[in-house]
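Chapter summary example.
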Amino acid sequence: MAVIELRAFADLQKIFKQNGWNMPHRFEIPDEGTTGKQLARQLQIPEEKLEAIFINGVVYNLTHPIKPGDRVGLVPPGLPSIYRVHLGFYSKNNRK
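The structure predicted for these 96 residues follows.
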């Protein structure tokens, strides 16, 4: 198994508290990597609770590959519009 550095934003931080995880949390993924959707399933997060993921500081949709050693941030839906534009996911369909 390989490791990623995992963070969560807004309401998703509750998952870290419930599991007693620090932020960032070192989380094991398969050696061949995973995707945001697969990671959500591993973390038992319903897909509708995630809008996007940050990988090494860049926003991606949930199908983007996550590789060992990546820094990953979980982003819930509902960020105010100014942040959506600034962070780069205005008008992206991040759930595909």
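To summarize the output: Residues 33 and 67 are 5 Å apart (CA to CA).
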